[in-house]
Structures are given as structure tokens and as C-alpha cells.
Amino acid sequence: MLVSALAAFIHHLAAFAIAAALVVELVTLRGELTVERARRLVNVDAAYGIAAVTIIVVGIARVVWFEKGAGYYLHDAPFVAKMILFAAIGLLSIRPTITFLSWRSALAQNRVPALAADAQRRLRSIVHLELVLLVLVILCAALMAKGVGFFGG
Ligand code: HEM
Asked: Is residue 151 part of a domain?
């Protein structure tokens, strides 16, 4: 019981961390880019990555060992939708991550990384879309936890 509760706790913590990281990225990508802001984006995006790996590992553990069992979730439409949405968020996050990682050499010399206005707008739109999909993930999570959408026998 305690392990299952701890797994749920870590899962929620990672979910909050992902939401917080995306909000910080969205806000930090507004306005002029500075060395300080660029550094914050690189660090927050790294934290986002760690939270995403954590939520996958703990999520799988909850599916297989701590909750209703893999057989249930694989026959639950909101769970399947949640996994598809989460994969979409993961794919969307690739471009911002590659961009932020490309800034490391400029930041090592305390220089503001080059970022064109339209590229900055595009990054913001991507992060915005990630946040919208995250809201849908949380909706699916609540539906699957309450047994809505189960199509197994
Ligand atoms: C951004 C990604 C994710 C978010 C925001 C998220 C969020 C949540 C939330 C809020 C709950 C609690 C639902 C409730 O009790 O009302 C939950 C439960 C759960 N999540 Fe996630 N989750 C994410 C990714 C994953 C992944 C990748 C997996 C599996 C690989 C997973 C598996 C589970 C399981 C098994 C439960 C327990 C459901 C139950 O009580 O039957 N989650 N998730």
C-alpha cells in the first residue's frame, strides 16, 4: 500500500514539474532574450526532461504493479488517449530542446544566443500547444482513474 502511494506521489510530483517547466518556458520566451533567460530555459528544459523520464518509469510501474493492472489500462480508451497525447507532447518538445541545447556554447562565453523573432514566436507556439495537450492528458488521467472508457470484457 505504501509503495503504491509513493508511486502515485512521485507520479503527481513529476506531472506538476512538467506543468511548471512548460509555464516557465512559455513566460521566459516572452520578450527580449537575455543571457539570464537563455540559461533559465536550458536549465528548466533539463528539469522537464528528468520529470518526463520519471513520469514514464513510475507510470509503467503503476500500470504493471501498483494500480488496476496492464490488462485494464490497455483496454481503457482514456489511458490509450493519454499515452498518444503524451507521445505528441514528447515529439513537440524536441525542437525547443534542440534549440536550447544549441545555445550552450554562446552561454559558455556569456553571449546572448541568436534567436530570430519568428523562431522565438514558433518556440512559444510549440510550448503553448504542449500545455494545451497536457491539460487533455490530465483530463484523460482523471477519466481512466475513475474507470470511464473501459472497453474490456
Ligand atoms: C505528462 C504526463 C502525465 C501526466 C500529467 C499524468 C497525470 C496523472 C494524474 C493526474 C493521475 C491521477 C488521476 C486520478 O487519480 O484522478 C495519473 C494517474 C495514473 N497515471 Fe499518469 N500522467 C502522465 C503520464 C503517465 C504515463 C506516461 C503513464 C504510463 C506509462 C501513466 C500512468 C498512470 C497510471 C497507471 C495512473 C493511475 C490511474 C488509476 O488510478 O487507475 N501516466 N496520471
From this structure: no
When divided into structural domains, the chain yields a total of 1
Tell me if 143 CB under 6 Å of ligand 1.
Answer: no
The reply to whether 153 falls in a domain is no
Whole-number Å distance, alpha carbon 63 to ligand 1 midpoint, is 9
Band (pLDDT 50/70/90 cuts) for residue 153 is low
The pLDDT tens digits of the residues spanning 35-53 come to 999 999 999 999 999 999 9
With respect to residue 67, please indicate whether it lies within any of the assigned structural domains. yes
| Assigned domain for 94 exists | yes
The domain in which residue 72 lies consists of 2-145
Query: Which among 99, 124, 97, 111 has a CA at the least distance from the CA of 30?
Result: 124
Give residue 53's pLDDT. Answer: 98
DSSP state of 147: T
Question: 130 C-alpha vs ligand 1 centroid, how far in Å?
Answer: 17
Contact 76, 69 (CB under 8 A): no
Tell me what pLDDT residue 152 has.
79
The residue nearest atom 29 of ligand 1, judged by CA position, is 59
Closest CA to 28 of 39, 42, 41: 41
